[in-house]
Amino acid sequence: MGKTPWGLTVRAVIFDGQGRCLLVRRSKQNKSFGGMWEWPGGKVDSGEDFAAALHREVAEETGLAVELAGLACSAGYDLPKIKVALLCLEARLVGSDEVKLSDEHDAFEWVSPIDIPRYEYMPGVTPMMLEYAKKR
Q1: How far is CA 100 from CA 96, 107, 129, in A?
Q2: What is the rounded CA–CA span in Å between residue 110 and residue 119?
Q3: Cys-Cys link to 88, which of 11, 20, 66, 116 (CB 3.0-4.6 A)?
């Protein structure tokens, strides 16, 4: 049996001027984890810098522009066909705060970090998100 490949995923913990972070809900159309919440982001393309990937994914999924502020948290988890290394970076809005969701997501909410535990996340990232919320 061959080794399971690794993939890199990036997520942005985007804060608004009131100290709330943006959560987006995966559309029911998604092949996996529909209806679950997450921070905006996605896969890093081959040869792509992780910061460039994060800017691209955030713009595609939310229409927002952000400025990276530092490491928020990281995790690793297994999916059926791939192992995922997840890097989450804190970010600040640059310009408009008007969210324009892509078809990948069907809802968004700005939440206080203390409210992060109230949402349902993918099993692989739930512990990381709850730990991050405790630290904020």
Answers
A1: 11, 10, 24
A2: 12
A3: 11
Residue ranges covered by each domain of the chain: 6-135
Token match 């192992």: residue?
A: 83
Domain 6-135: which CATH number of 3.90.79.10, 3.30.70.3040, 3.40.50.1950, 3.40.50.1240: 3.90.79.10
Report d(CA 12, CA 91) in Å as an integer: 6
| Residues 8 and 83: beta-carbon distance below 8 Å | no
| Chain segment 6-57, per-residue pLDDT in tens | 999 999 999 999 999 999 999 988 878 899 999 999 999 999 999 999 999 9
pTM of the full predicted structure?
A: 0.92
- Cα angle 58, 63, 64 (rounded to 5 degrees) comes to 65
Interatomic CA distance for residues 77 and 37, integer angstroms: 17
